[in-house]
Structures are given as structure tokens and as C-alpha cells.
Design goal:
The chain is an alpha/beta fold. Helix content is 42%, strand content 18%. It has one domain: NAD(P)-binding Rossmann-like Domain (Rossmann fold). The longest helix has 29 residues. The protein starts with 8 loop residues before the first strand and ends in a 5-residue tail after the last strand.
């Protein structure tokens, strides 16, 4: 998507930390207008204040992206504050890992609600606006586990395979329109996701690595339509 140097109206779910936050600041280098969602209001307030200090118009909404009432209230505010959506970065996600027999129904529900239902609802809400203006870029944070499988990742990988299929089907539906859809498929990323977990974060991707790739998708020319980008850590 490339509208010369126009200011894009960018919505980022899961924008209070990690990849979502890094993407907001990456795109803020070129201006743009933002609406960030998340559950941590203190963090969102801080990020929006920093975006304002960089000269960007920015707002936030607090709530569960998979809750229909909460999501629609936020979306109504987005339309009121931004007047529309040029970029949806559906980034919010939850992960629980372990052998399948050790995972719980509560962990199943939380992951599928956030990682699949939430993505579906937000795409479902923005599509009519984007089709009406005949332009727009949808980006979903999938995972390398949306393209393969691994032990101890059964439910998380299942959610990422689900959104991968959702986006690939959507791409077929969008042929002939000016709306594009893509996934970003990173391996492990050094974010607060891993706080308190006994893992080596020194060889992981950085949030900035992923944000730079998101920018590539957003700023692509009208003559290209990126399908997905698989990112793996450079340090082995």
C-alpha cells in the first residue's frame, strides 16, 4: 500500500508493548495517525503521549479485542476519531505452551478467543470501510508456527494455522479490489511475552526487526501484494 506521503490511519491491536508498540514508533517516523488497543491503560497512555510528542495524532482504547461489545465500542471510536482505517495491524495474541494433555480448556478458550476470534472480528469490522474506499492493508501477526508445527505448541500453533488459512482465503476474496492482506510470521521475539520464563532471549528477534518488516508491508507499492513474510532469528 502506497499513497505517496499521505498520512495513514493505522489501527494496532495489542499496541501496549512488544511488536505493536515498536510498530507504532517505526511508523511514527513518517507521521501517520494511530489508534492502539490493549489491556494496560497506563502503558497505552504513555505510548500515546510519546506519539503525540513526535507530532502524531494518536488515541487508544482499553479492552478485550475478542469481546464483541468492547471491540465494537472501540471501533466506533476509531471511526469517530480517525474517520476510517487505512491499515489494520491485528497483532494481539496469547500463548500457552506444554504437552497437549497438560493444557486446559481455559487455555484453549483464551488462545482461540484472542488469536482467532479477535482477528476475525477486527478484519470483519474494517473490511467494509476498506472496500468502500478501495484501499487498505490488513496485517495479521501469525508465527513461524502458522507455517509448521512443533512439540509443546499444539494449541498455539493451531490458532496460528487458523489465522493463516483465514488470511489466505481472504486474499482470494480481495482479488479485484484495492485492499490487501498479509501475515507476518516471526520466530521467537524478545518481548514482554517471555518475561518470567526460563528461556534464552539473546538469540531472539527484536521487536524492531519485526516492526521494520511491518513497515515494508505497509509501504509496499501498489504494484506488489505481499502474501506473508517469514522471519527467523539471525543469531543461531
Amino acid at each position: 500500500m502506497n499513497n505517496d506521503m499521505d498520512s495513514f490511519r493505522i489501527v494496532i491491536t495489542g499496541g501496549s508493548s512488544g511488536i505493536g508498540e515498536a510498530t507504532a514508533f517505526e511508523m511514527a517516523k513518517s507521521g501517520h495517525r494511530f489508534y492502539l488497543t490493549g489491556r494496560n491503560e497506563v502503558r497505552l497512555q504513555k505510548i500515546v503521549a510519546e506519539l503525540h510528542s513526535l507530532g502524531c495524532d494518536a488515541y487508544y482504547g482499553v479492552g478485550d479485542i475478542s469481546d464483541e461489545t468492547s471491540a465494537r465500542l472501540m471501533f466506533d471510536e476509531i471511526k469517530q476519531k480517525l474517520g476510517g482505517v487505512d491499515v489494520l495491524f491485528a497483532n494481539a495474541g496469547v500463548g500457552h505452551f506444554g504437552n497437549l494433555e497438560d493444557l486446559t480448556l481455559e487455555q484453549y478458550d483464551e488462545q482461540f478467543d484472542t488469536n482467532v476470534r479477535g482477528v476475525f472480528m477486527w478484519i470483519n469490522m474494517v473490511l467494509p470501510l476498506m472496500k468502500e474506499q478501495n484501499s487498505g492493508q490488513i496485517i495479521v501477526t501469525s508465527s513461524n508456527l502458522g507455517l509448521k508445527t512443533s512439540a509443546r505448541c499444539s494449541l498455539y500453533a493451531a490458532t496460528k494455522h487458523a489465522v493463516q488459512a483465514m488470511v489466505w482465503c481472504l486474499r482470494e476474496e480481495l482479488k479485484g479490489t484495492g485492499v490487501k492482506a498479509a501475515t507476518i510470521n516471526p520466530g521467537s521475539v524478545d518481548t514482554p511475552w517471555f518475561d518470567g520464563k526460563d528461556v534464552d532471549r539473546s538469540k531472539m528477534l527484536s521487536s524492531a526487526d519485526v516492526a521494520a518488516t511491518i513497515r515494508l508491508i505497509i509501504d509496499q507499492n501498489e504494484t506488489s501484494d505481499i502474501d506473508h513474510i517469514l522471519l527467523t532469528p539471525g543469531r543461531k
